[in-house]
Specification:
It is found in: Nucleus. By secondary structure, the protein is mostly helical. The protein contains five helices and no strands. 58% of the residues lie in helices and 0% in strands.
Amino acid sequence: MSSVPNDTRAIKDILSSMDVQDYDPQVVLQLWEFVHNYASEVLDRASSYAKHANRSENINEQDIKLAIKNHVEMNFQKIPPNPFLFKLAQERNSLPLRIPRGKYGIILPEDDNTTIKPNYSIITKPPKKKKKSKKKRINKTQTENQPQQQQQQQQQNTLNNQNEMEIEKDN
């Protein structure tokens, strides 16, 4: 007895009956999963239809047919009939093609409509020159507050620089 499960063997037989000889082994698993999901959903719907008809768990052929019909309508797209497609193709093909502009090759949109245009500008300022300050007499309380004042001044400068860059970026 072979070690291949019956479901896998059945799917391989279907593929060989359709003259499909060369396929990836994962195809069999994908088809098996599709069949399993399809059958499970149809049986669940048929069971709910039987319950709705007060037949508890007794599923009959009509429940299965109705479940298949509803499943196909909800999950698969119907192909329009050939005469309709032919008429649609004739209507579309009766319209002339647009005449290309004077340019040949790939026609790209203007730079203003692309993402390659820079949308920001960076302005660098020269460093500020430090003024020479006159020497003052500094008392003890001034020297204690000085590091704190310097830190606050640096934070304020950083915030000002960030605000300036945001304004320039928006322009």
